[in-house]
């Protein structure tokens, strides 16, 4: 009974390939801003270098973020969404 309920609400992992761009959540990253409210919520976008495990990815971070480990669980990055409006950047 519990397994059936848990399987209903469990989300499947997205399929992401090397080279795709991801936004990185700043949830666990310390900021230099005076309050967390003023910090950016998403950093990036960063390209995927490789898929490490089923739920982990290796991202190519910028030089400003060299103090951060470059391996992330799939719950922290968010895929970059492309616009459906023509000529929109």
Write a short abstract of this structure.
Pfam families: SH3_Tf2-1 (PF24626). It is built from one helix and five strands, in the order αβββββ.
List descriptors:
single chain; 5-stranded antiparallel β-sheet; SH3_Tf2-1; Tf2-1-like SH3-like domain-containing protein
> Main sheet: which strands, in order across?
4-3-2-1-5
Distance between the termini: 48 Å
Overall morphology: globular
Low-confidence stretches: none
Q: Which structural class is indicated by helix and strand composition?
A: mainly beta
Query: What gyration radius follows from the Cα positions, in whole Å?
Result: 16 Å
Number of helices: 1
How many domains, as an integer? 1
Give the fraction of residues assigned to helices. under 10%
Instruction: Output mean pLDDT.
Output: 84
Oligomer: single chain
- What is the total tally of β strands? 5
Largest sheet: 5 strands, antiparallel
- H-E string: HEEEEE
What portion of the residues fall into strands of 2 or more residues? 25-35%
Pfam family, one: SH3_Tf2-1
Organism: Austropuccinia psidii MF-1
Protein name: Tf2-1-like SH3-like domain-containing protein
